[in-house]
Design goal:
about 0% strand, membrane, Coq4, Coq4_euk, lyase
């Protein structure tokens, strides 16, 4: 169906979903397990995402043009030269400060539909852009917050699993901070923000980040998220 596709039966998908789901809960750094779980459980959510994208002019354009985000399609040097207040410059800072690359996302393998595999790939490749847009560092607390927003935005079981079980892995102080401060913001943001899968992020590099947030109905994140936490995991290889 597409390069890298692995054909699997319903039974194989079921076994993969169960096994990868358990492995992902036990070890969130297993990006291969997180990816497999997302692909083997996400069919209905991906169909819904596809329908919502088709119903939106920009979303339809994205599906027609199929842009990809990697080091060949994005001029990283150009982003580094943009003003500090721009979305593109903040994305560049997110990548460079954390040692991440837009090439790190895993390709889709187990989805038996070429159109839906692109929807999943688009979700994966825009994940770091969500971090930038929401002002969330790539530590455990920041990732749980982003996953809660993504749960409401995408309906993907993978995001729901991470949003619901992620807080268990937080320390006492950060778990309390999450439930008191960041969870209400994440729920409100996930529900009220414009449909992010229909945002052509590559056309907004030069936009002021604050203005872009306002245009998408995103309020500023609560203070105190911080950049460093003890519970650091290689999130950027996860989804």
């Amino acid at each position: 169906l597409y390069p890298g596709h692995i054909k699997t039966t319903l039974l194989q998908k079921t076994l993969l979903a169960v096994g990868s789901g358990v492995a992902a809960i036990l070890d969130p750094s297993r990006d291969d397990m997180v990816s497999a779980f997302g692909e083997t459980t996400g069919y209905l959510a991906l169909k819904t995402l596809q329908s919502k994208m088709l119903a939106d002019p920009v979303g339809r354009q994205i599906l027609e043009e199929r842009p990809v985000i990697n080091s060949k399609t994005i001029d990283i040097d150009y982003l580094s030269q943009l003003p500090d207040n721009t979305f593109g410059k903040q994305y560049w800072k997110f990548l460079t400060k954390n040692g991440f690359s837009p090439d790190a996302r895993r390709p889709v393998q187990f989805i038996d539909d070429d159109d839906l595999q692109y929807v999943m790939l688009r979700y994966r490749q825009t994940h770091d852009l969500y971090h930038t847009l929401l002002g969330m560092p790539p530590h455990m607390l920041g990732e749980v917050i982003v996953k809660m927003v993504e749960m409401f935005q995408t309906g993907l079981p993978m995001c729901t699993l991470a949003a619901l079980f992620g807080p268990v892995r937080l320390g006492t102080v950060h778990r309390e901070k999450y439930f008191k401060t960041f969870l209400p913001w994440a729920v409100k943001t996930g529900r009220n923000t414009k449909f992010l899968m229909a945002v052509y992020f590559e056309k907004h590099w030069e936009d002021d980040l604050q203005e872009l947030r306002r245009s998408l109905n995103i309020t500023d994140p609560p203070a105190g998220i911080g950049r460093k936490m003890k519970q650091q995991i290689p999130i950027e290889k996860e989804t």
